[in-house]
């Protein structure tokens, strides 16, 4: 990957990791019957730490699925539907990567074929795929414009 593409890769990984943990926290706390505002100080700490811990896994999913998909669909990158494809590929990649991580490192409770309200693979995969698409599209637009 050239320099600009590496920046896009890192930016998409960061966006995916941190937006994933923010959505995960928001959904978890929305299920709480009584949110304790006295514990709200921990929210930034939880987001910072768990986003950082998610970063290598999000990057792995982007490297294994997002980069090859972007290369395979390079000729159609200006089509209107590529953003939708990026979201779907991100969701599928997120599910596959989270399934592998859960079965290799944890207890294997994550079910690949089940989609729930707070499906962690989708929560991390979709924003990663969409941000990768958007950043690559912006990069190509800038290169076409001579910037």
How are the SSEs placed, and which strands pair?
Blueprint: H1 3-30, H2 42-72, H3 82-105, H4 120-145
Number of strands: 0
Distance between the termini: 18 Å
The coarse overall form would be: globular
Taking Cα atoms only, what radius of gyration do you get, to the nearest Å?
A: 16 Å
Helix content: over 70%
- Describe the biggest sheet? none
Q: What portion of the residues fall into strands of 2 or more residues?
A: under 5%
Unreliable stretches (pLDDT < 50, length at least 5) are none
- Class computed from helices, strands and strand pairing: mainly alpha
Mean pLDDT reading:
87
Strand and helix order: HHHH
- Helix count from the secondary structure assignment: 4
Number of individual domains: 1
Would you kindly provide a written description of the structure presented here, covering whatever features stand out?
The structure is a single chain. With 147 residues, the chain is mostly helical. It has one domain. Helix content is 74%, strand content 0%. Helix 1 crosses helix 2, helix 2 packs across helix 3 and helix 3 packs across helix 4. The chain is globular, with a radius of gyration of 16 Å. The relative contact order is 0.18. Keywords: Membrane, Transmembrane, Transmembrane helix.
Short description:
By secondary structure, the chain is mainly alpha-helical.
Note the main attributes of this structure.
147 residues; mainly alpha
